[in-house]
């Protein structure tokens, strides 16, 4: 089908004579420059301003298709407030979609609306009826056989001998109007071009629980590196905690030149394993597995076993090299050279990172370099990986990511890219706009009620929510937030609940469940970070949060309201340290209410103020709240309700809110 | 100059390898779909988000030109908050302008910033200095002779034998940095395409005082129609009132078929002059002058004489016909025909207007029809008209206006089009977006403080202020607002001040100055409207507002703050019926403060709360306010000040606010 023609900027008469004016189509990012993001199964509501000169009735459709090769489908536009029309369709497969709006003057509808008013004023003339008959003739000529007969009959009735009232009544019949609507004259329809775009991802791009693990720390024997095989043994446990994604820092051979020692010391001992981000050694680079971890076959096996356990493996892709990376020898031109002929190492002046050579994405041979990078991703895709956590994407050109992700998604629309950029807001947004499906956020540094409310509101409302999907990690190997350093176990519990309920996607980095909180003083670095050494943890250590994590992840699975950020509302609480918010499904069948005490040290209590109308609760009705963590059941009544949270017990309550199924007012005789 | 190349989507290396990312350029309407409006002499500030990967320094320019044939000029971009960069240029001629943003990595600047940090940490190496020398060599190769020598010398100094500290100091020299900045490597610069557009109008498009007059009412003899010659005699008086634009309803021959009588009666008496909007008769159509008014020569003469008096004549163009219009015979195909072969008259069901035939802008022969409409405008342009008030543009296709105004502005960038559309907001906005320079508004129906504040705020802030310039008429031949019908003389005074100070463009329709307030009961129609009969007014009738109008227009001319809507601020007053606002010039040299009592029947008083900081007044300083209407001088102190307005005297105060020139604190010894 000829897209240009069907999208209809003009039809036969040329664009100029198209009378319907289309403005402000949504969703649309930066005037159509970038696609908005949606998830398979989403209902996409398109709105557009439509106006036409004069008093004519207009009508229109949303046109949409899954990719530029598919044929267009249509769904009607309906009028809303202030000339904003809307229509919806469901995206049922991953990949690029596009949509536009087409609208035209509804001649029979215009005539019919006029006739209705004239009939009410008793001012219908014979010519009025004949005009309508002519419009029905034209519609009949456009129609297939069945409707043509009906329309012809309608036209004949209008021209017939019956008394005018009878002819008016016939003309206004709904069946006739519907038949006429089915065969509009769209030769002068207007359509907004270019079509707007959507990127449709699978569910896991929007919602998932991530667990980050250093494979080399998976060993049961503290004397040797963990292996991919060791991880296989852990899978039932991780799956049992309710995680969806198991994510590894780089698993490649690690350079020896300028290798870092424990706590980022410049000298590594002979047994120092080095940083996994110093990628590449004699044994290989970005497509190799570190010999200590196992083989590529082990990797394939782990990916398959994880899949069987309901866990998808995500890989960290860090496009940088140790001085020992094979590319350094094979493609010295891919690195920036200094005046003395040496390769430039990574810098953030005045600091230099001698164990890392950044790739020069604008080198003379950039096309080959970019192609090789694409090859790295393709390699791991071949090995079953579909989720990539990209390390420091903001130190590589934005257009590189646009090109790379665009290319990979064409081949594999089920891929998911998480941007690990902790940097300037505009850069984080640009990366999301050009293709990253998920983004790390400033969540770790948002701790007070005001900070959380402002930031999460920004993230969950357009325009940001149209292109940036947050993934709230409670900590990362690089960030042990001060709140966790000094808040103790209640702080970990509170941040877990916040991350898991404020954002549809969230993650923890292993160690979080054991409330590991020891930092290099005055920094956010973990003391004895496993970035530079092996680590073994005891899964049964006292006070660990594993039961709570399992419960929270189970709650997330049982409550679809938590799988989206679309309907997040913050509610007033008259206590500064208490934050209260809710999420609900579009049909209100699932409503989750969360209250968290942000002060890990003291009991706080207060009154929350709930928008009962938004929850579909009638003002006088009682409703049940069931604390899904603590198990308590409460019967609440009215908008204001009391909460009290003792961090020593549990700093959060997570309620499922249920409307009463029935009251005596629902009986017939009460109405 | 090759625009594509100079605007630089890529330069030599192709778009993909351009590292600077440009987002959210402003001003930009609907992603660049429409031009923003500016006035000759305006400083246009362009902002855009710029980010680049890594730690490099970036730099950029705004590129702009007056029309696509002009050569591009450049002005530097400077960094602002949150990666929003900004640069300004002045538009010095009417017509279409365009601008974009170009940005690139500043290699020497990046190196220099790094060197500064390394020097502070005492970590500069010899290679660091050599790297800088290489960058200076490259800059020298790009530079002309003078700068080349300087840059070469800089490179040599870096490579030289001097102690490192000396070489670092040389490298950080400002003269060297400036020379390097003058010769950047822009081969991989990024530019946003397509360029954004501006429409630049002359001053009168933004600011002017309009006076609307029915030429046939200009007769000193109540027994005969006024003529264009009669108007010539009135010109000194109208100019003396301080108006800029003299605007006439249609002056063409008026149809006889179905001519309307007084008060819109269906039967016209033999002497009924008919409605000027029922255009066209045996004597001619849209390019003819009604014989009762005079000849085209009289018209030419009037336009010239008005010009000498400082008045520009604006014409009403109503693209519709009486049944007697020559086009009806010459081009029956330009009208819609009904089933019985008759031409359809205007309708707003159930009402029909038998004296008006609308033109069918989508008829088969639409190109010829549109061409003829263009010819009508061209005809009057030939006769010296540059300002067109377009009647009911919303009953003609939006794209027709886009085409027509676009075409005329190419030929005559000094034309001004005022949209007389009182209709749905989105339609009014669409008309403004496609080309109308000014728009009628809902001002007549905004009467309370809340209504005025909300509406005027919407009009004077982006996005609306970027494309819709309001023209506040206090009344029109079709609208005698209820507020005026029942508010008496104080209501007229208050609305005059509001219109003339809230909007840079405003107008009155003759009769307003005499507080004509008699309506057809229950409507907004004037009783005995001069739309259907001759009218004579006594310029000296008691209580007329001519002195106030002259004063207000003089104040408008003396206070440039009133010539723009850009810096309008509303201020709190603790009295519901008092509204207070200010306008100021960008340099704060002119600040006008207005207080209006919106209740025409009662005295109100209260305290206004002024944002002294915005006015450039130090917290403790006194300031003078001078009531430009009443003449009173007051010395105010602090943000809160008392006002009291008695509508029986004058319902408005219009203050010029002056900072004290000097206090004892300005003496040296006080500091």
Return the structural class of chain A: alpha/beta
Largest sheet of chain A: 8 strands, parallel
Oligomer kind: homodimer
Rg of chain A: 31 Å
Shape of chain A: globular
Low-confidence stretches of chain A: 1-13
Number of helices of chain A: 17
Mean pLDDT of chain A comes to 94
Cα separation of the termini of chain A: 56 Å
Q: How many E-type strands of chain A?
A: 30
Overall helicity of chain A: 25-40%
The largest beta-sheet of chain A arranges its strands as: 20-19-18-13-12-11-22-21
Question: Largest chain-chain contact?
Answer: A-B, 66 and 66 residues
**How much β-strand is present in the residues of chain A?**
15-25%
General description of the model:
Two copies of one chain form a homodimer. Chain A has 671 residues and is of the alpha/beta class. Chain A has 17 helices and 30 strands. In chain A, helix 3 runs antiparallel to helix 4 and helix 11 packs across helix 12. The longest helix of chain A is centred in the C-terminal third of the chain and has 21 residues. The two termini of chain A are 56 Å apart. The N terminus of chain A is likely disordered. The interface between A and B is large, with 66 and 66 residues.
């Amino acid at each position: 089908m000829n897209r240009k023609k069907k999208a209809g900027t003009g039809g036969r008469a040329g664009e100029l004579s198209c009378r319907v004016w289309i403005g402000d189509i949504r969703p649309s990012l930066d005037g159509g420059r970038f696609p908005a993001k949606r998830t398979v199964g989403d209902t996409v509501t398109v709105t557009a301003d439509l106006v036409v000169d004069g008093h004519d009735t207009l009508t229109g459709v949303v046109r949409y298709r899954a990719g530029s090769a598919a044929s267009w489908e249509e769904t009607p536009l309906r009028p809303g407030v202030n000339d904003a029309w809307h229509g919806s369709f469901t995206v049922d497969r991953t990949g690029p979609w596009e949509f536009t709006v087409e609208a035209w003057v509804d001649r029979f509808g215009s005539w019919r609306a006029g006739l209705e008013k004239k009939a009410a004023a008793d001012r219908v003339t014979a010519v009025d009826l004949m005009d309508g008959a002519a419009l029905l003739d034209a519609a009949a000529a456009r129609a297939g056989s069945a409707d043509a007969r009906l329309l012809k009959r309608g036209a004949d009735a209008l021209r017939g001998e019956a008394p005018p009232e009878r002819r008016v009544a016939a003309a206004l019949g709904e069946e006739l109007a519907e038949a006429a609507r089915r065969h509009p004259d769209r030769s002068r329809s207007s359509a907004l071009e270019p079509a707007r775009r959507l990127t449709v991802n699978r569910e896991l791009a929007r919602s998932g629980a991530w667990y980050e693990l250093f494979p080399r720390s998976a060993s049961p024997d503290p004397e040797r590196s963990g292996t991919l095989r060791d991880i296989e043994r852990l899978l039932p446990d991780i799956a049992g905690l309710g995680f969806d994604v198991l994510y590894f820092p780089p698993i490649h051979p690690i350079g020896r030149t300028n290798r870092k020692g424990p706590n980022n010391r410049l000298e590594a001992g002979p047994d120092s394993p080095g940083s996994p981000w110093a990628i590449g050694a004699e044994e290989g680079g970005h497509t190799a597995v570190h010999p200590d971890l196992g083989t590529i076959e082990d990797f394939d096996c782990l990916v398959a076993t994880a899949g069987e356990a309901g866990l998808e493996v995500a890989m960290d892709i860090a496009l940088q090299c140790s001085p020992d990376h094979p590319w350094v020898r094979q493609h010295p031109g891919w690195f920036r050279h200094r005046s003395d002929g040496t390769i430039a190492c990574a810098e953030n002046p005045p600091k230099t990172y001698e164990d890392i050579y950044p790739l020069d994405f604008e080198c003379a041979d950039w096309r080959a370099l970019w192609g090789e990078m694409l090859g790295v991703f393709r390699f791991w895709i071949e090995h079953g990986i579909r989720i990539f956590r990209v390390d420091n994407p903001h130190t590589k050109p934005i257009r590189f990511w646009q090109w790379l992700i665009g290319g990979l998604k064409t081949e594999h629309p089920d891929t998911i890219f998480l941007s690990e950029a902790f940097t300037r807001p505009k850069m984080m947004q640009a990366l999301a706009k050009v293709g990253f499906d998920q983004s790390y956020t400033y969540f770790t540094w948002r701790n007070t009620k005001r900070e959380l409310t402002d930031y999460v509101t920004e993230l969950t409302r357009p325009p940001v929510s149209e292109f940036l999907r947050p993934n709230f990690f409670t900590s990362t190997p690089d960030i042990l937030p001060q709140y966790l350093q000094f808040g103790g176990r209640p702080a970990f519990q509170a941040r877990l609940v916040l991350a898991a309920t404020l954002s549809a996607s969230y993650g923890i980095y292993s160690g979080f469940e054991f409330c590991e909180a020891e930092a290099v003083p005055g920094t956010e670095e973990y003391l004895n970070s496993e970035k530079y050494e092996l680590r073994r943890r005891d899964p049964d250590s006292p006070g660990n949060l594993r039961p709570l994590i399992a419960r929270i992840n189970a709650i997330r699975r049982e409550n679809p309201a938590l799988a989206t950020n679309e309907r997040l509302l913050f509610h007033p609480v008259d206590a500064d340290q208490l934050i209260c918010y809710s999420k609900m499904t579009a049909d209100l069948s699932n409503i989750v209410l969360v209250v968290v005490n942000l002060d890990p040290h003291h009991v706080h209590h207060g009154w929350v103020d709930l928008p009962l109308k938004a929850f579909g609760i009638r003002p006088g009705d009682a409703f049940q709240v069931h604390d899904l963590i603590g198990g308590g059941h409460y019967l609440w009544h009215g908008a204001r309700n009391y909460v009290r949270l003792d961090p020593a017990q549990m700093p959060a309550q997570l309620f499922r809110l249920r409307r009463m199924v029935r009251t005596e007012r629902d009986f017939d005789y009460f109405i």
